[in-house]
Structure formats: structure tokens, C-alpha cells
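User: Assemble these into one structure.

Assistant: Restating your components, then the assembled model:
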Amino acid sequence: MVAHLLRLKLTLLRNGLKRSPWQLVGLAFGGLYALGIVGMCVVLLVLLRQEDPGLAQTVVVLGGSAALLGWGIVPVVASAVDMTLDPARFTTSAVPMPQLLAGLALGGLIGLPGLATLLVALGTVVTWTRGVLPAAGALVGALLGVLTCVVFSRVVTTATASLAASRRFKDVSGIAFMVPLVLLGPITAGIFQGMAGSGAFLSELAGRISWTPLGAAWSLGGDLERGHVGPAGLKLLIAVATLAVLSWCWKLLLERALVTPPFAGSSRRKGGRLGLFALLPGTPAGAITARALTYWFRDPRYSGSLVVIPLLPVVLAFQGSQTNDYGVLMITGPLTAFLLAWSISGDVSYDNTAFALHLAAGVRGVHDRLGRALACLSFALPTVLVLASVPFFITRDWAWWPSILGISVGVLLTGLGLSSVVSARYTIAVPLPGDSPFKKPPGNVGQTLAVQFGGMGVLLVLVLPEAGLVLAQVLTGDPLFGWINLVLGPVLGTALFIVGVRVGGRWLDARGPELLAQVTVNR
Amino acid sequence: MSTPLTALSIRGLAKRFGTKIAVDGISLDVPAGSFFGIVGPNGAGKTTTLSMATGLLRPDFGTAVVHGVDVWAQPLEAKKLMGILPDGVRLFDRLSGEQLVTYAGLLRGMDRAVVAARVGELLAALDLSQDAGTLVVDYSAGMTKKIALASALIHAPKVLVLDEPFESVDPVSAANIRDILERYVATGGTVIVSSHVMDLVQRMCDHVAVIAGGRILAAGTVDQVRAGASLEERFVQLVGGRSQTEGLEWLRTF
């Protein structure tokens, strides 16, 4: 039975690859990437063989514990768990529970993450081939550790299966995942700095963790090498007990999951809460603003980009702290303005075929454009003003303040005008409504790139006057250019905003049905 | 041609997608105050025809006129007269049901107080009051169809064009919707529905058109078209394509 399940997993993998050669290319790239990481880790582990046992122990225990944590957390947050052997599919086949558990656990090792973890774990055996006893301990520890990784990840995914099926959880986890992704640079740099500065702390941390279920399995080889036979025995007990308890939990959860399929429903709610629709003017443009704003907060595809904005100054400030030159912080304002304004350049693509409602209701194009642009402007303007000003509290270089404010507002208004034109004429490939913001969107990638880069090029040309004034201030040092920019940015921006909304509106009136036909392709 | 008594007049509508001709010159007159059924097999061109007649899909050839207003020459005026329930399009489903119908009303430029009153009545009539505040994305398929119907009714159109309005709607709701539509027709409104369910069309509609392969095979009052037989028999006769029921003997060997 176990062999049968493993064969099934392999067949599924093979058939998946047969579907398209691109799947094979994807796997090959993924494989190369994984091989690179595995190779690096194994080389490191082999080199550690020559090093001080204390250092080797610290690295192995911390690395192993991190891997175990990763196996537990990543599948849930990234909704990326491999469901080819979803236990729910075996409900009708009446497979005995022990065989099912063993088959699923071993099946979890087939695939890139499983194989990579197994190879690196076996690398630790090389680290401890300093004697028969340490090597044997490391081997037992590695096998225990890898199995614990797989079972732990299954426990977590089974426990959260019904949670993960709910729309709300998918929405929130998708957005939450943005945060570490954006802060990846500062986080990794921080960890490396911490490591370099505090070796003693890390070795103590490793010592503590080796007594917990996280690190017990990984510490066996090192403890035996250093002659700590008693502690090693106790840690072996901890590791075995961890695996046993996790397996037992998994069995309980699986038994329950097999008879209670995930329930994705949510509670019924009575009406009476019109939200923004009651607050904003009851006109077509007002209603579109209310709808668009509601989406900015309710649709993860929009709100995901909102989460990124406040992190932007953090990333830039980090850049500044590395070089001790905080001048780079000044681009926060214009950059935020650009990101927010450009985010509605695919608005109709985001609507997908829901856009048919605007077409069927006979909404005038200019109302459609104005409503969407105002929705973005309503929160983008204060955000941009704040983020453009904040850096000056750090740099104290207030001479640049008017100029930066001017160009930020100019970029925002010009960008919104341009976006209104672009999204009235071109569609781009975006995740479908209801999909995760990280999902690869269907559709024509070539056109998307052409529209995006072409549009950005045009925007650069349109904000040349503001950019020129900034340059003039750089060259002459005369703050007068800054004050001119403070006036010119908003004035020119407003003019281009109005032109953009009008031109976009006219294009939409003329080509609404064609636009709907374009988004229908990607439904 | 289109007299004031014609609610929808279609002349020579045609559409080609790549090499496939989806609609091949359809002409049709829908009398005002009629309950008009459009039936046809899968891929017959029903949805394409209705999309072109309502201004959602630009035809390659032909015209569509609603109560004397050319849909493609004066789209905004024509759309004021029509309520449209398209098939197979998404809704703005991150809005609650109540918000979505309100949105549809406000988009049409209606007064907020009127919209609020009508939304309440529509949701009650369609048995959605209990779920008015639930997001449409969490609705079942039948509820989604009903909320889309409410969005099409909100502005009291003169002509209702409903593409597959009864798909996945439960029998009780379907009966309620039928009541609403029948009362609407009785007071002078015009309803155009497309459907697969012959029985329903025969009972509900007074006029019917049979479409297959992008052409009209028969059109007229239901009694004219069915010519004594049931609509389903007549439909099969017109469209053809019934496979022989021989073969599959093994199915009887259990």
C-alpha cells in the first residue's frame, strides 16, 4: 500500500510534466536553483568537518531548527502546499490509516523541497564523520529530523485546511506575505550583522534550542563527538517523542478531516450597511469612487499594494543607513506617487468581465475615469504629502522640501491622468478576481510589458518640467527653483489629470465593447 | 420595420470570431409587451446575438434598434431603456449584495432615495434580504444569478434582456422570478429570455425564436412555432442532431 502511494505520487509528477514542455523547463530551473543551494549547504557542512566542534554544532542545530520551522510556516502562508496527495481524495478508497500515514509522509519527501532537505540533512553526517559514534548519531538525527519536518508540515496544513479554504484567510495571508517579501533585504542584512557580532550568543542559543523539539534531533552528532553521551541520549528521547507526538496529532487531525470536509462558507449578514456608497455623492462618478475605494480595502490584489507603501521609507532608510547618506530618502515622495498613480493603469483588467456592468448601465466614459482616479487620489494625495515630507525630519535639509513636494504631487496627478488613458485603451495581464496577488496571471505577457514600459516612458516625458526644475536647483543651488516647482507641479499635474480623464473617457465611450472583449479573453 | 410597437428590432446581425461565424445574419422583431423566448443548442449564437443587441459586443454587420433608438448609434440612450442580465460575466463580487444593486442603480444616474427603496423591495422579492450584507463572492451560484437580476431590474427598464436567468436557481426562487416577470409583462414591459429548458419557455413565453448555427430556424408566437407538437419535439425536429439510441448494449448487461 505504501509503495502504491509512492508510485501514485511519481506517476502524478510524471504526468504533470508531460502536460507541457514548459513544466519540465520550470522543474529544471527549480531543480538547478535547489541544487545550487543544496550544493552550497553540503560544501559548507563538509568544510565544517575540519572546524571546532562547538561551531559546527551551532551551525547544524540552528540550520536544522530553521528548516523545521520553515516546513511548518511556508506552506500555510504561501498557500503553496503540494496537494497532489490530498488526503481528502482517499476518503472513498478506504486505505488503512497507518499505511496512509506512512505513504503520505514518504510521499512528502518526493519533490524538490523534500529531496533538498534530505540531502542537506545527510550532509550533516559528513560533518560528524569524526568517529563511528558521532557519525551514527548524526545519521539517526538527520533521518529523525527530516521525517519530523515532513510530519510537522502535514500537521500544520491539515490543522489549517479548513481555515485555508476560507476566502478571508486567503485574502489576509496573501497580504501578510507581502511584508517579509518587501523587507527581505533589511531582514537578511540584519540577521547577518547579528551573526557576525554575536557568536557567543548564537552558540548559547543553539545550546538551548538543542533541548527543545526544534533542535534535539540535529544535536545528536555534535553531542556524541564532544562526549556528552548522557545528554545525547536524553535528546534522542526528545526527538523520538517529538516525532511520535506529531504523528499522533496528524493521525487525529487526519481522521477528523476525512469525515469533515473543509467548509468554506461564511455567516449570513443582513443589510443596512452601504458603507462608502452612503457617504459619497449619489452620482455615477461618486458611486464608482465608492466602489473603487471599497475594492482598495477589500480586494487583496489592491490592498496588497497598499501594504507595500508604508514599508517603502523603511527600505529606503535602511539603504541610507548602510551608506550613511540619507539623500536617497528624498525619492520616497515621487516614488510613492508614481507607484500609487500607476496602480490604476490596469483598473479595467482588474475588473475583468465585471466591467460589463458599466457598459450595460451606459456609464459615460468620463464618469468612469473620474470615479476611479478620484478614489485613488483621495488617499494617495495625503499619503504622498506625508511620505514626501517625512524624510526631511531625518535629513533636516529643508531647502529641498518645496521642490520634492511639487514634483511628488506633479507625478501623482500626471500619473493618474495617464493611467486613466492607458486603462481605457489597453488591457494587461493581472491576477483574476479572487486569485492570490502572487498567482501568475493568464494572458499576453508581451503586451503587458509593452504597455507598462511604454506608459512609464510617456510619464517620464510628461514630468520633465518638474524634473528639470529639480535639476536646476541641484546645479544652481538656488531655492527659488524649488518654490517654482511647488506651484508648477500641482498646476501642470492638475491640467494633465483633467486631460487624461477626458481623453480616457472619450476612448472608453468609443471602444468600451472592444475593451470588454479583450478582458473576456482572460476570464 | 421598427414601429413603436416593436420593442427590439434586429436586422442582419452577424459576428465572426476568427474563422468561426458565430452569428450569421439574424433578423428578428420582438413586439412590445411580449414575453419572448430564444432557444437553441449549445454554441448556437444566443449569447452572441443578445450581447450584440444590447451593446456589449460590437457586431460585424447589422443593426439593433430598441424602441426606435439605435443601440450602436446612440448607445447611452438605448441602454437607459434596457435591463441586461448577461451570462458568464463576473460581478463586482467584493461588494455586498445590497451594495452591488445600489451601485447598479447609482451608475444609471438614479436618485439615491429611490435606489434605496427599490433595493429593499427587490431583495425582499428575490428572497435575499437575509443575505443583503453578505459579500457577493460568498453567494451560491443561484443567489449570484438573483442579485445580477436585481441589478438589471433596478432602473425599471422598458425591455429586459435576460441570458439564461434560471440557471442554477432553485425552483422556489425560479417561480418567484417568473411571477415578477409575468407581472412586468402584464403592465406593458417586454422580456427577452434565452434558455435551454423548452418546457419552461413553452409555459412562460408567448413568442419564441429557435436559433441554431447562428441562424434563425423559426420565429413567431409559441403556438405558431410548435405547430401542434410540444416545443421540445418541434425543437428537436428543427435542430436535428439526435443520436441513434442503439449501441451501449453493455449498459443493459448489469
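Residues 480-521 of chain A form the longest helix (42 residues).
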